[in-house]
Amino acid sequence: MQTTDPTGIFNRNKLSEEFSNVLPDEARLKLDAILLEIQTDFPESCYSLEYLNTKFRSFLTPQSTCGQKLESLFQAAAELTTAEAPKWEFIAARLLYFQFSFHLKQEETRRELSDFYKKLVYLTQQNLYGSYILEHYSREELLLAETYLKAERNNLFTFSGLDLLLKRYVIRTHDHIPLESPQEMFLGIALHLAMNEKNDRMLWVKKFYDMLSRLEVTMATPTLSNARKPYHQLSSCFIDTVPDSLEGIYRSIDNFAQVSKFGGGMGMYFGKVRASGSNIRGFEGAAGGVIRWIRLVNDTAVAVDQLGVRQGAAAVYLDVWHRDLPEFLNLRTNNGDDRMKAHDIFPGVCYPDYFWEQARDNLEGEWYLMCPHEILKKKGYALEDSFGEEWKKKYLDCVADPEIQKRVIPIKDVIRMIIKSVVETGTPFAFNRDHVNRANPNSHKGIIYCSNLCTEIAQNMSEMEVTEEKITEIDGEQVVVTVTKPGEFVVCNLASLSLGRIDVNNREELSEITKTAVRALDNVIDLNFFPVPYAKINNEKYRPIGLGVSGYHHMLAKNEIPWESEEHLAFAERVFAEIHYAAVEASAELAREKGCYTYFEGSKWQTGEYFAERHLTEDRWKKLAKKVRENGMRNGYLMAIAPTGSTSMIAGTTAGIDPVMSRYFLEEKKSGILPRVAPELTMDTFWYYKNAHHIDQTWSVRACGVRQRYIDQAQSMNLYITNEYTFRKVLHLYLLAWEEGVKTIYYIRSKSLEVEECEVCSA
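RESULT FIELD:
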């Protein structure tokens, strides 16, 4: 309803008149229409244009250009954002988009880009768009796709979200001039993801566009950035098993460099690499240990900096029984020998059940650190290749063997070193390997050693192996050909349901969006550009995807559910059961339509163990298990909860499964300090947005345990501690997580510690 407030009309006219001499008439009329729209959509007195007019004029100088005035207008709106008037974030976004669209229109006119098809032709000619879009779609189809565009969905953005999207994700020329609107970006991604659909392709284009443009689903950062472009590396996460050989280690480092070059993050398992002081070709004490090699990974991360956008990112994992553990735990700390540091790397520790049992029942006991290479030579087995009771039996066998060198440290001291590191650096990440492997739906084909950079991926792993090097002749010239057994080089394709943007109480809506997202992710596998061939091979064998969520706290607040409550746990159980059911059903239906993944036969999906182990035995789950058995599964791995740092900002929701750090805070940007607020902050939701550091963390751990039942992979879960947390309290959280079946713990964030957000795994 149009406002009749004379003061509002006066201030609208004053704002509009400020641009009368610097904007073309058409643009000024558009601005006036937007200001009227703001008055209509935000009638509360706290959003009066009087405030905007006053704030705006405080930015102006007699020398202000048109561009500076437009920037001042949206900047003024952004700075008016408070906990009491949070919707200024949306007003600022509308004004920012006006400025962006004004310049975009000028560039389109200059280049004679009068419709979507002409724009795609131009962008393809400029090598900014992948030629495959024009090769797969006719002009008629692309003009039909243009009718799907809904400009009004730009109003869903907050200022921070839109600002991030415009700066980082829309297509720009080599001179950094944007030539794509947000809605065109979503449509371009949808066209790419639906490209190979055989039936109802344009229907799937529309469905993919709708879920993205409504901000109901966010694709991973590489997919948002690279879909529709010539170099379409769409995957976030890669994991490699580092062999215990010189050529194997360097091959893994080279793989990391290639992954980093195209914007991926990497997890690297170093648990097979011999410890410091171990023998090399029979020479005792010759091995330098894992730290020297990790430093090379660190230098590679810094050197291969993704075209100067950001440096590469890698997590390195080591078993808690590895002899180099103490030095490993000091990788990022500030004390000690800097030659043994790797400050740009993120360490993670792999824990068996037996370690936590000892920490709980025998804290004063001793823990034995050994070298995996020595164990393999003397015992004939690789200790890291087993888990559960088998691992425990072999570990105790090694402990009892006097011929195996050991580094003996009290369990209490091992835990002290771990806690000292997490308090100082936020790391190491925790990987509960027995939980992970017991729940592995594809345990018939291998073992999982570690996770990725953000601790949400859990898939079968194995090292690469050079089987042959031979000299042959190609085109009359001698060449050396290296034959490599690819092993299992893990890659995962991520997306997240924005729970704060979906009516999670509507089973039909939640199911439909989940199934659409699963289909889009499955298509990513076939459409992807892989930075290393090993990733392509593994992707085709398992067809793994990682459907996750963002907006978890947003969802709870909207539904007026306190974080610290049994109601929270019951609600999480219900929501994730629905998501899980829909995702499994979607994959089974895709298998019937397109075929199942290579290793389905013999998997826990096929045998029904997957459902039995999770006690999913109600009638509807039995029916689903039957459907899976009959149809197969399209995807060997299905769900994983990523951190979603940047993509959740675009969606205007909370990150991943984390609670908010604050209801209201100030964010420092190059343009100044901008206020940020919790999503949909009102008097009704205010009290449900409790600060993460004020939450009893046991509720977060218990909620993670509840969700884990419905997630075949893992979750990026952070823990938030204060100075009041003692050694015992932190240990209690670790033990509780293990007892609740939590597979991984990401960062432990102390109140004084700022940790680096993972952008490559955002989803």
